[in-house]
Amino acid sequence: MAIHEKSLIAPEDLITSDKLVVDGVDVSGHWNTMIKPRYISDYDPDFYKTIQSYGGGENVHRCWQCGSCTNSCTMYAINTDFNPRYWIYLVNLGMKDELLKDKDIIWQCVSCNKCTNICPKDVRPEGVMKALQHWLEAEGHTQKSNSTLFDEEFARQCLERGRIEDTEVIHNFLKKTGQDIVELVKNGWLGILVARMNKWPLLKQGKIIKFVARMPLLGPVKMGLMMVFKPRTKSWGRTGEVLRQYVEEQKRLAHESK
């Protein structure tokens, strides 16, 4: 099914005239908008298979362009540039360059799953949006999201030591995302969290004994020690190596299938 919404056509491909008369008929204004003819050769007919290799994109080939996904989309109601139907259409045509024009919009999906629930062909458009996001990251078209950076740090500790240390996960995540821990404690959410945990108003009210009684002294000390002496699952060496090999093998297979 052809995509011919004017909003989806690049401005440079539209031809308009302030004054146009054809066969004696004045067709000035919106009526005289024409689209430049073009021949598309820079497409990848197997691109949909690449998207299928990412979780959520397995059924992208089933789409028959009914438009139910976009019509029900929460984000489309707010931003008409957010158009799942159009992006799925581009995937199946293999028009990667056209997709990249919207690389900063695709991330607006809120995973409400209205599109997935209404889709008559079980395309699972919400999953396709996530698959597109992973593809954009994997190909370096966009910077890694905060959730991806968190997942990488979490997985790194699991593979290296068979367990995680919460303090190290948070510390390294904040470091990778460029967040100032000191500033977060002084003026950000981290400071608010600590204040609520420790009931700092008690200290301001002069209730020192109650304040000290509420302070979680043992927990912070233990967390600090674990940052120095990294916790490790017993006899993890061989198991960790097997898991790392498995992860690398899955990455290789996914890469070869693209």
Offer a quick outline of the entry.
With 258 residues, this protein is mainly alpha-helical.
Structure notes:
There is one protein chain. The chain is elongated. 16% of the residues are buried. 52% of the residues lie in helices and 3% in strands. The strands form two sheets. The chain has a two-stranded antiparallel sheet with strand order 1-4. Strands 2-3 form a two-stranded antiparallel sheet. The protein is mostly helical. The longest helix has 21 residues. The chain has 14 helices and four strands. The chain folds into three domains: 30 residues, no CATH class; 92 residues, Fumarate Reductase Iron-sulfur Protein, Chain B, domain 2 (Orthogonal Bundle), CATH 1.10.1060.10; 95 residues, no CATH class.
Key attributes of the depicted protein:
258 residues; mainly alpha; Fumarate Reductase Iron-sulfur Protein, Chain B, domain 2; two-stranded antiparallel ribbon; 14 helices; 52% helix; 3% strand
Stretches with pLDDT under 50, minimum 5 residues: none
Which structural class should the secondary elements be placed in?
Answer: mainly alpha
Taken as a percent bin, the fraction of beta residues is under 5%
Mean pLDDT over all positions: 83
Count of discrete structural domains: 3
Number of discrete helical segments: 14
Q: How does the major sheet shape up?
A: 2 strands, antiparallel
Strand and helix order: EEEEHHHHHHHHHHHHHH
> Based on CA inertia axes, which overall geometry fits?
elongated
Helical percentage:
40-55%
Strand order of the largest sheet: 1-4
* Distance between the ends: 26 Å
Beta-strand segment tally:
4
Rg over CA atoms, rounded to whole Å, is 27 Å
